[in-house]
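Title: Prediction job returns without error message
Component: structure pipeline
Severity: low
Priority: P3
Assignee: unassigned

Description:
Job completed but the reporter wants confirmation the result is attached to the right record. Sequence as submitted:
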Amino acid sequence: MGYFAGFMQGGLVDYNSWDLVINGVSEPCTEYNTSKITDLSIDWIKDQTKPWFCWLAYAAPHTPFHYPPTEMHNQNMAENDDMSMFLAMMESVDYQIGRLLESMNQETRDNTLIIFMGDNGTDKNVLQLPFRGRRAKGSLYQGGINVPLIISGQGVERKNTRDGNLISSADMFATIADIAGTGITTYQDSYSFKKLLSEETIGLRDYNISEVDHGDDYRYAISDGAYKLISNNDKEDELYNLLDDPYELSDLFNSTSEADKDAKQKLLQQADKILNH
C-alpha cells in the first residue's frame, strides 16, 4: 500500500513552519523541514518487512535561503549572504542523507540501491562561474537542465566511474521498474539504464529533449550529446558544440562549418520527429 508524508507545495515559505501532509491529512509542523522529512523516511523504512521503494524529496536548497541548524553545516553565519546560506543548505542535505544511511542496519544497506538526482539547475541568484547571467534554473541552457545523477549500492559494479550516456529524468520510471524485476525496460519515452550499473555500453538513447511551455512562449532544447540546439520560439535559435564548449559561450547556429550545419539539420529533423510523432 502506498504511503505519503511530506508537503504538497513546490517549495516552502518557512522551513520551520509548514504543513505536514500524511496520506491526505494536513497538520501544522514547526520542526525543521529537512530534519523532519528525514525522520519520517527513517521511521517508515524501519517499519518495512518486504522489499520497498522510498522517494525522498527535500525542499532544500530551494528558497528562502537561510542557515539550517548549526550542526548540519560549516558555513560562516556572519556572512549572511545568499551564497553562504545556499551552501549551508546543501550541506544540510548531505548531513541528513548521512543520517538516513546510518539509520539502516548493515543488511539493509547492503541490499539497497541509492539514486541521488537533482531536479533542475541552480537558482540564478546563487549561480557560480563559469555559468553566468540567467543561464540557470528555468532556462534551457546546461546550467538549467544538466543535473547531477549519482548511483551507489546494491547492484552497482562500476565503481568511481563517470558515464557519458545521455540519460533523462524520464528514464527513472523504466529503470526502477527494471531493477524491481517487472520485466519493463521501456515505456513511452522512458528507457532503462540498469545495465549501465554493471557494464559500459552506449546507445541507450540517441537524443535528450527538454521543453519550456508557457502557452504563447514554447521553447525546447535537443541534444545528441555532442551538439545541442535551442529553439527559442519567435527569437533566433541557438546551436552549441557541448564537447568543445560545455558552458555554451559560442553560438554556432549561423556557422558556415559543414560539421556545424550538418549537426543543426539533424537536430532540427529529429526534434520535428519527436515533437510531432
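Comment from assignee: result matches the submitted record. The chain has three domains: 1-111, 155-205, 207-277.
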